[in-house]
Amino acid sequence: MKLSPMFVCGATLVAVWSLIALAAPLLATHDPYAIDFEALLAPPSADHWFGSDNVGRDTYSRVIYGSRLALYIGLLGVIAPMIIGMTIGLLAGYFGGWVDTIAMRVLDITVPFPFFVLVLSIVAVLGPGIENYFIALALVGWVGYARLARAEAIVLRSSEFVLAARTMGFSHPYILFRHVLPNAMSPVVVYMMTDVTLVILFGAALGFLGMGVSPPAAEWGVMIAEGQIYISSAWWISFFPGLAMVLIGVGFALMGDGLAKMLRIER
Amino acid sequence: MKILRFIVSRLLQSVPVLLGVSIVTFLLMVNTPGDPIRLLVGVRASDETIAIIRDRYGLDDPILSQYFTYLGNLVQGDLGASLRFKVPVSELVAQFYPVTLFLVVYSIVLILPPVILLSVWSAKRPNGPADQIIRIVGVIGLAMPVFWVGLLFARFFGVTLGLFPVSGFGTTIPEHFLHLFLPSLTTAIWVVPILTRNLRSALLDEMNRDYVTAGMSKGLGAPQVFRTHVFPNSLLPTLNLFAVIVAYLLGGSVIVETVYAVPGMGKLMVDSILARDYFVVQGATLVFALTTIVVMLAVDILSALIDPRINT
C-alpha cells in the first residue's frame, strides 16, 4: 500500500503534538498556572513567547500544557461511542430482522437533533465537566459509527467467506468477531479520525461556553474564552490556543483523509 | 395524485420520529437535578401553590403518564414556563426563533456560491492542483473552532476595520443584514468544506455515467455536457444533504450567537443552561429538532417533485 502524502502530513502533525504533550514540562518556559503581576497582558516577547494573560500567566506554556487536555479529550472521547456504535451497527446489519428495525428507528430519532445541541443539553442536565461530556458523547456519538458498521455488515453478511464459515458450522459470535468485525473496520477508523477532530472542537466549545473543563485549567477553549474581553488590546491570549486547535485538528483530519484514499474508500 | 399520496405517506412516516424526539426531550427533563417547580415559583411559595403546579405538569404521576401529560401539553403548544423570564417558553421561542431563522437562511445564501464554484472547480480535474488545494483549505476550515473564528472576525472586521457591528441584531431589516453578516460568515466557513466535498463527489459520480460518453460521442462539447446534464443531476444528492446541513447550522448558531451576542435561540439556550432554566433548554432542544424535521420533509417532497423516480 502506497502511503498518501496527506496521511504522512497528518500523522507527522499528530506525532509532533503527542511529543509536545509528553514533553510539556520540558518545553514550557513557565509554570502554566503561575500568576505574575509584573507581566499583566504582556505582548509576545523573548520572555513570554506568546505573551501573557490578564493575571500574567504565560500563554505559550499554557498552550503547551493544553495539548495534554486536548489529546486526552479527543482520544478518550471517541472510544465509548466507537465501541457502542460498532456493536449496535454490526449486530443490526448482521442479524437484520427486528434487531435492525429497532436500531434503525433509534437512529432515525437522533437525526433531527443538531449534534452539538444534544450534547449541550445533556451536559446542561448532568452538570459541567469533562466526565459529563464523555457521557453525552457515549449517549449521542455512537450513531455515526453504528450507521457505518451496519452498512458494512449488511454487505459482509452475504459475502462468500462468511457463508463458507457458516456452512463449516462456525457460530455467529465467532464469525462476527473474527470475520465481519475486521473487515468492517476501515471506514470506521477513517470516520474515527474526523471524529477526534470534532470531539476536540466540541470539547473546547464547551470549555468556551463555561460547561466543559473549568477554569483555571490550561484548556484551549477556556483560554479563548478568557481572552475574549481583551481581544482588542491583547489578541494573543485567544489567538494562540485557537491556532493550536487548528493544527491538531488538521492533523487528525488529514490522517483520516489520507487513510480514506489509501484504503480506496473515496476518490 | 401520486405526488399527493407520497406527501401523505411521508407525513405519516414523520409521526414516529416526532414521538421519538418528544421522548428524548422528555427524558432530558426527568433527570434534572432539584425540583424545577420549586425553582420556578421561588422559595417563598406555599406548598399548595407548588402542589397545584406539580399537578398541572403531572410531576407526581408515574413516569409513563408524566410523559403523556408532557406530550399532551406539547400538542397544545405548551412547552412549560421560563424560571428566569416568568413567561411561557412558547413566548420566548416566538421572540428568539425568527432571529436564528434569519441567521440560518442568511448563512445558506452566503454558502451556496462558493460551494458551487469550488466543487465544480475541483471536480473538473480530480486530484489536480486546484482540487488538492481546495481540499486542504477545506480541512483547515473544518478544524477551525467556530468561536475562535468569530472572535478574530469581530476583532478584525469589526474593531480594526470598523466595517460591521460585532454584536446584537439591530432593529430594521437593513440593520439585520449588517449585524448578522459576520455571524453568518463565521458559520459559513465551517459548512462550505462539508458541502463542497459532497457536491464534488456527486459531480464525479455523474461524470462517469454512460450519458456523458454518449453526449460527447454525439459531438457535444464537454462544457455543454457538464452544464446541461452533469450539474443538474448532481444537485439532487446534495439537496438531500440539505437537512443535515441545517442541523449543522443550527448547532453552529448556538456558538456563533453567543460570540456575537445575537439574541437568537442558541444564545437563549446557552444563557438558560447557565441560569438552570431547564424548561427553556428543553424547549429550545425540541424546537431545533422540529426545524430539522420540517426541513427534511420539505427536501423529500421537493426531491420527489424534481425527480419522478422517487415517488413511484
TrEMBL record, chain A:
One of its GO terms (cellular component) is plasma membrane. The chain crosses the membrane at residues 69-94, 106-127, 133-149, 188-213, 233-255. It is found in: Cell membrane. It is a multi-pass membrane protein. Residues 67-256 form the ABC transmembrane type-1 domain. Keywords: Cell membrane, Membrane, Peptide transport, Protein transport, Signal, Transmembrane, Transmembrane helix, Transport. One of its GO terms (biological process) is transmembrane transport. Residues 1-23 form the signal peptide. CDD domains: TM_PBP2. Belongs to the binding-protein-dependent transport system permease family. This is Nickel ABC transporter permease. It comes from Neptunicoccus cionae.
From TrEMBL, chain B:
One of its GO terms (cellular component) is plasma membrane. Pfam families: BPD_transp_1 (PF00528), BPD_transp_1_N (PF19300). Keywords: Cell membrane, Membrane, Transmembrane, Transmembrane helix, Transport. It is a multi-pass membrane protein. Belongs to the binding-protein-dependent transport system permease family. The chain crosses the membrane at residues 12-30, 96-121, 133-157, 177-195, 241-263, 283-306. Gene3D superfamilies: MetI-like. Residues 97-303 form the ABC transmembrane type-1 domain. This is ABC transporter permease. Its main location: membrane. It comes from Neptunicoccus cionae. It comes from the Bacteria. SUPFAM superfamilies: MetI-like (SSF161098). PROSITE patterns: ABC_TM1 (PS50928). GO terms for biological process: transmembrane transport. It is found in: Cell membrane.
